[in-house]
Amino acid sequence: MSETDCADAVGEDTHQMAVRIAQKFRDAGVGCEIFNFATADAAVLRRDRIAVGLALALLTALAWSYLLWLSADISMDGMDMGDFRMIPSGMALMVPAHTPWQPMEFAFVFVMWTVMMVGMMTPSAAPMFLMYARMGRLTDAQGTPLPATVWFAAGYFLVWVAFALLATWVQWGLERSGLLDSWMASTSSVLAAFVFVVAGSYQWTRLKDVCLTQCQRPFAFLMRHGGFRPDASGSVMLGLRHGAYCVGCCWALTALLLVGGVMNLLWIGLLALLIILEKVTPFGRRIAPLAGTIPLVAGAWLLSMAIS
Fold first, then answer.
1. Contact call for residues 119 and 67 (beta carbons, < 8 A)
2. How many CA atoms lie within 13 A of 125 on its CB side?
């Protein structure tokens, strides 16, 4: 028997063993997939990693540049607005404070929330995008995993676009009720206390922990949900699923923007940093409940001040 035949025999035996092990897992009710990884050149993997990393860095930089532009516009013109309110457009647009929102204002606020979510979530989601591109290259070394990675990212961000639309409706309702100021921060101690308590309590829930676990383990997530999808529709659907877990993990933290100010860049940066620590660091699952203690204490204090 030649060396090649021996290698083929060993490979076949290994595959059959993997099939038997996978079947035992399935019989036990545990989801399991088998992947035949191709041999990929280290230089090709490095090139893919650099391309995806640069694209994510550029996307993050553009999002934060836009937020800086909006913040500078509001800071410049928001000092003495009288009976007017600022539209977060970066173009010094104002409307009478008593008038209802127009479609243009709703669109600008929606864009603001969308860009904000992209700027906050892209750094913490980067390990997943890099893993998806790497798995695509290892699954098919001759293929082109980068377009599929783009589709995966599109599905992921589509979930956050939907979240941004919901956040825009919430902001519209609060602004109409007089509960937000010109910086889009809460003017009500009761509202602020409620948001703090809800966000802090959610950090301790089982649902938060489950969603955070899915976000923390990119490889395990892909293995559990079928692995790399070379087609656009499959990649988008997998991105939607991961985005849903990410929203489940982070929605309560982003709600805190309504307390500290939707356009308060320091507040945005601190929350983005907390999200990165939760999702990227190995001790993120311990950070989450500890971080929830602070909003709980702050909410209780604000509530006591409002009652007294």
1. yes
2. 29
pLDDT in tens, 85-124: 778 887 877 777 777 888 898 999 999 999 999 999 999 9
| Confidence (pTM) | 0.83
- Element (H or E) spanning 241, and its range? helix 232-255
Contact 253, 274 (CB under 8 A): yes
Closest CA to 227 of 133, 156, 158: 133
Q: How far apart are CA 244 and CA 211, in angstroms?
A: 9
Taking the C-alpha atoms of residue 299 and residue 277, their distance in angstroms, rounded to an integer, is 23
C-alpha 132/C-alpha 221 separation (Å) is 10
Give, as one character, the DSSP assignment of residue 264.
-
Per-residue model confidence as pLDDT tens digits over 180-219: 876 677 888 889 999 999 999 999 999 999 999 999 999 9
Q: Write the single-letter amino acid at 185.
A: A
Q: Could you tell me the residue ranges of all domains in the chain?
A: 1-34, 44-307
Q: What is the token pair recorded at 198? A: 């809800």
CB burial class (10 A; 0-12, 13-18, 19+) of residue 141? Answer: middle
Tell me how far CA of residue 132 lies from CA of 61, 84, 119, 129, 223, in angstroms: 22, 47, 20, 5, 11
Cβ proximity of 240 and 159 under 8 Å: yes
